[in-house]
Amino acid sequence: MKTKLQAARVARGWSQAELMDALEDAALRLGIKLASRSSLKTQISMFENGRREPGQEYQALFCEVYQTTRMELGLALETAPSQLDTLPTFPTPRSPAPKATPEVLGYLKSVFVQHVQAEPLVGPRFLVPAVQSQMPLIEELCKEASGPLRDDVVRVGARYSELLGWLHQDTGDSQSAMLWTNRALDYAAELDDPALSAYVFQRRSNIAAEAGQAGYAAGLANAALKHAQELPNQVRAVALRARANSYALLGQADDCTRALDEARVFADKAPEEDGGLAAYCSVSYIDMEAANCSLQLQHPEDAVQALEASLTRWPAEQQRDRGLCLARLATAYAQLKDVEGAYNAASQAAAIAQATGSARILAELGRLQPLLTRWRKLVEIAELNRLLGRIKES
Questions:
Q1: Alpha carbons 57 and 37: distance in angstroms, whole number
Q2: What's the pTM?
Q3: What is d(CA 260, CA 274) in angstroms, rounded to the nearest whole number?
Q4: Which of 150, 154, 333, 380 could bridge 338 with an S-S bond, Cβ 3.0-4.6 Å?
Q5: CB 244 within 8 A of CB 205
């Protein structure tokens, strides 16, 4: 085969015409406009022969139809913009950048722990600038570090990049989220750390799923689980959850259920040392995600049962995720035409969205609003809609 892209089609036994059919179906799901069949055939030939590199939209489509990652198709990853290029300049000579020392690393690690502890309470609005401001120093250290401290420096770079990717995702900026998560994957690859790489792959799967790229999300989740036996319990559980979510988006209910059942098994086991990567992954967390899968699969009764049970066990410090849980519960109630239940859950979720600035909660409440249209004249629903409008404008 001339390219991995061509090999992927041949491995599935597809003709170019069958690939075009799959691309047209995926383009409808992702809202991408394709060229005419004749032009598309020409472009596929050029892509597969290596004469032209697919652009971002075509890369997304190929990942979607093959349910795999850009890397596995031989396509270039997006590169996060360097923060070093945007540092201010001053007329006076700049002092040399700090060297990688145990003290500098200790400072960055302690601040990272504080960011992680604050994130579920205050949300991304105030943390993005704080984390972003530390990236120039971290990138400089990663660029210059060598010797016995290099692995520690690179690991700090991976953790900060992944956190920044997550914060951008929670603000609704999928592009920046994927860029910074890709940067974290670059660092993880250098460390040859299976747990860290798997965790970052499932994070990329989450971003792709929220952007509606179900096939790509499935491929990234499969990449996270490629060495499943080597993974700590909580990391394996969140990767299985990512796989389940992609299956739900693809309408594969039985596969989704199996992945969720397996995820609960590992979430319920005693945590293993994973550097704090997935300490949040409890059975309650998996149940909340299972409810989201139920909503995707149009099973609101199952969603209500799972979410109500999950909320009784929800950790107080995970306030932002509690808001997302409540927003999904409101959607499930609305699908069941329980307007009182939908209003009560949505009101609590809206308050948390307003306090944390979480775009993910607000997006879920946006999915709820059309379901409440039939009750829009009720005083409570009208007030809820006005509140959501104010939050979106703020």
A1: 17
A2: 0.78
A3: 21
A4: 333
A5: no
